[in-house]
Design goal:
With 194 residues, the chain is of the alpha+beta class. The chain has a domain of 115 residues: Jelly Rolls (Sandwich). The protein contains 8 helices and 8 strands, in the order αββββββαββαααααα. InterPro entries: cNMP-bd_dom, cNMP-bd_dom_sf, RmlC-like_jellyroll.
Amino acid sequence: MIFHFRDKFPQLNVFWDKYLPFQTRLEVPAKTILLEEGKISQNYIFIEKGCVRTFFNNNGEEKTVHFFFENEGLTSFNSFVNSIPSQFAVETIEPSVIYLLPKQYATQMIEELMEERNFMQMMLQIFAQRQTYYTNELISFIRDTPEQRYLNLLKDRPHIVQRVPQHYIASYLGVTKVHLSRIKSKIARGKSHF
């Protein structure tokens, strides 16, 4: 949704604070499922501390889709909006502190936000930014080798490599753990090429 853009749009903070009493603050261990694949998303999730991943099951094999960290928020958007089963699960990777805002209050808050000046412009900017990000991810997955994608992670999002277990990174890159180890060894030897 919109709240992991609070740093770029400080006017959101008033609404976040107003709806804080309707949120449930949870301290959860690693490997806590926050949303099961196939269930309807009922909450917007905001991460105060920790790391979360989204993934789906493909014939018994988990495929990691995305990682989220502090001050980011997520939901299974299509499920949340249209009350349909989620295509992916949401799980903590680290011990995490999260806030859950139920759908009824998220909807109410959006209705209030719509009265704000420049709200539509802000929403368009947010959606354009997210769309660009996901488009770039898709293009990279099609165009780049797993090695190039790993190098991109090291360059653009090193915190993922530093904090996320290797088997999740391998799943995210679409390779086995063994293949990822080979990629890392090749890079360490300085023989990587584009």
